[in-house]
Design a protein that fits this description.
Structural class: alpha/beta
Largest sheet: 5 strands, mixed
CATH architecture of one domain: 2-Layer Sandwich
Order of helices and strands: HEEEEHEHEE
CATH class of one domain: Alpha Beta
Strand content: 15-25%
CATH topology of one domain: Nucleotidyltransferase, domain 5
Helix content: 25-40%
Number of strands: 7
Distance between the termini: 90 Å
């Protein structure tokens, strides 16, 4: 008596699961690429002919609100002035050669810039003043 099995192994390869994975990866990279911004505040930077390309570890941004107050941001998140020092120290605690990039709007008074410069000097951080190319 010859018994045949009714179950046969299919040798066809189904690409639908692979295309789902590629589609999900595409969405993931599109979403994460839009979240990356060098500075969260819209700043009009001063212009300079000289540009440096040092690796920045932390970015600090200052924007003038034109009413006597300022927005401070550390790595893109807005913080009050008294929170800048602890946030920068926490970000640079395990960095060997720390750099702080300072993004300052053109209309910000020099007094506010010097406050951040003093913070960097007191903690022995190297400071980069960001400018836009001419």
């Amino acid at each position: 008596m010859a018994l045949k099995t009714r179950n046969r192994v299919s040798t066809a390869f189904n690409m639908s699961s692979m295309s789902d994975i590629v589609f999900l990866l595409l969405i993931f990279f599109m979403v994460t690429s839009t979240l990356i911004a060098p500075n969260a505040l819209k700043l009009l930077l001063p212009q300079s002919n000289n540009q440096t390309s040092a690796k920045q570890n932390v970015t600090v941004s200052i924007k003038d609100l034109h009413n006597g107050s300022f927005h401070y941001a550390v790595n893109g998140s807005i913080v009050p002035f008294n929170e800048i020092s602890p946030r920068v120290k926490a970000s640079l605690s395990d960095v060997e050669d720390p750099f702080v990039a300072l993004y300052v709007d053109k209309s910000v008074p020099m007094e506010e810039v010097v406050k951040i410069m003093n913070l960097a000097k007191d903690n022995n951080y190297k400071l980069i003043l960001a400018t836009s190319p001419r």
